[in-house]
Design brief:
heterodimer, A: 159 residues, alpha+beta, 4-stranded antiparallel beta sheet, B: 201 residues, alpha/beta, TIM Barrel, two-stranded antiparallel sheet, 4 helices, 9 strands, globular
C-alpha cells in the first residue's frame, strides 16, 4: 500500500472557503480549536491568532476541513470519506477561487477608491490654499472647471 | 513639403486667459538665445530638441481646442523658430484665430525674412528683453517696464488695455493634484503660493 496523504489545500481564507462551501450545498460550522499555537495562518489568510480552526462539514463530525500550516486540509472518515473526496474538493476549490478573485477585486476597488478620495482631498486642499493666497494678495478670483481641471483666473488692477 | 517642418516645443497650455486677449491656446517654444537674467522660464533656453512636433500635427492639436479666440506663441524665443511658426500661423489664420507672440527682441531687430513673415501674420506682439532691474508688477502682459505691446492689425483695435482690473495670472490644478501658474503673477502671489505649497499636507 502506498501512502496517500492529503496535504493542505491552497485555500487559506475562511471567508472565501465558507462562501465556496455554501455554493456546493454545505452548511458548515466553524469551530475554534484552542491550544494549537503552532498553526498560524500564512500571509493572505483571514485567519488570525494562535488557535486553529476546524470547519465541520457535517453534524456527525466525521468530515472537516482542518487548518494546517499552509491551508485547510480535508479530513473525512467512514461513510463521509466517499462523499467528501477529491472531486468534491475540486468543486469547492473552484468556487473558492471565484470568491477569492471577487474578494481581491473588492479590495482593489476599495484601494482605488481610497486613492481617488485622497487625490480629491489633495486637489481641494491645493485649491483652498491657492484661493487664500490670491485673496491675501488682493486678486479677484474666477473659478472654472475644465476637462477635470480647476482653473483659477486671477485678476488685479494693472497700470 | 513645408508642412513636414517641426516645431521644438517646450510645453502647451490648452486654454489661458492671461497670455493675451480672450481664451487662447498657448505654445511655449524651446530655445532662446537671449538668456535674460531673471527670465521666468530658463528651462526653455536650450535649443536642444525637447518635443519636436510637426507643424501639421501641432495645428491640428490647436484646432481641436476650438472654440478659442486665439493662439499665443511664447517661450523660449518664438522668433528663433520664425520659419516654422510662420507656417503654423498661416494655417491658423485660415481659421480666423487671433495670433500673438511674446519676443525678447525689439521690432527693429526682427529683420530676417522669416521673422518679417511671422510678424506680418500676428495681431499682437509684445517686444523687448526682460530686464530684471525694470521688473514691475501690474503690467498687462509684460514683466518689465521696458517691454512694449504692439497692435499689428486692426483685429484688437478696440482692446481695453487701460488701467483697471485684468486677468493677469491663472492657476490650473489638474485632477491628479499637479498645478501650473501662468501669466504674470506678482512677487507677492508667488511668495504666498510658495508658503501655501509648504503648508500642504
Amino acid at each position: 500500500m502506498s501512502a496517500y496523504i492529503q496535504l493542505a489545500t491552497p485555500m487559506t481564507s475562511v471567508e472565501c472557503l465558507l462562501d465556496a462551501l455554501a455554493d456546493v450545498g454545505c452548511s458548515p460550522v466553524v469551530a475554534q480549536v484552542a491550544g494549537q499555537s503552532g498553526t498560524r495562518a500564512t500571509a493572505g489568510s483571514s485567519q488570525s491568532g494562535a488557535t486553529s480552526q476546524v470547519i465541520n462539514l457535517d453534524s456527525t463530525g466525521t468530515a472537516s476541513l482542518v487548518w494546517a500550516p499552509t491551508g485547510f486540509r480535508l479530513e473525512a472518515r467512514g461513510a463521509a470519506a466517499s462523499k467528501f473526496e477529491q472531486s468534491w474538493l475540486r468543486k469547492v476549490a473552484e468556487r473558492y477561487d471565484f470568491h477569492r478573485a471577487a474578494k481581491e477585486q473588492r479590495l482593489a476597488d476599495g484601494q482605488r477608491l481610497a486613492a481617488e478620495e485622497e487625490r480629491r482631498r489633495l486637489v481641494e486642499a491645493q485649491r483652498h490654499a491657492v484661493i487664500e493666497a490670491a485673496k491675501k494678495q488682493g486678486y479677484r478670483i474666477e473659478e472654472r472647471q475644465e476637462q477635470g481641471c480647476i482653473r483659477l483666473v486671477l485678476s488685479k488692477r494693472v497700470y | 513639403m513645408r508642412d513636414d517642418h517641426v516645431v521644438n516645443v517646450a510645453r502647451c497650455l490648452l486654454r489661458s486667459s492671461t497670455n493675451g486677449p480672450g481664451e487662447r491656446f498657448v505654445l511655449w517654444v524651446q530655445g532662446c538665445p537671449l538668456h535674460c537674467p531673471g527670465c521666468w522660464n530658463p528651462d526653455t533656453w536650450s535649443p536642444s530638441p525637447r518635443e519636436l512636433i510637426r507643424v501639421t500635427a501641432l495645428g491640428n492639436q490647436i484646432l481641436e481646442e476650438m472654440p478659442i479666440d486665439g493662439v499665443t506663441f511664447t517661450g523660449g524665443e518664438p522668433f528663433a523658430q520664425a520659419e516654422v511658426l510662420a507656417e503654423l500661423a498661416e494655417r491658423l489664420r485660415t481659421h480666423d484665430l487671433s495670433l500673438m507672440a511674446f519676443t525678447g527682441y525689439e521690432l527693429e531687430e526682427l529683420t530676417d525674412h522669416h521673422q518679417q513673415r511671422l510678424l506680418g501674420l500676428l495681431d499682437i506682439v509684445v517686444t523687448g528683453r526682460f530686464i530684471r532691474e525694470m521688473k514691475a508688477d501690474g503690467l498687462l502682459w509684460r514683466g518689465s517696464s521696458n517691454q512694449k505691446v504692439h497692435l499689428l492689425s486692426d483685429r484688437h483695435r478696440g482692446l481695453d488695455m487701460s488701467a483697471g482690473d485684468h486677468p493677469i495670472a491663472e492657476i490650473v490644478i489638474t485632477d491628479i493634484g499637479t498645478s501650473v501658474v501662468t501669466g504674470f503673477p506678482d512677487a507677492g502671489l508667488l511668495h504666498e503660493l510658495g508658503t501655501a505649497r509648504k503648508s500642504q499636507p
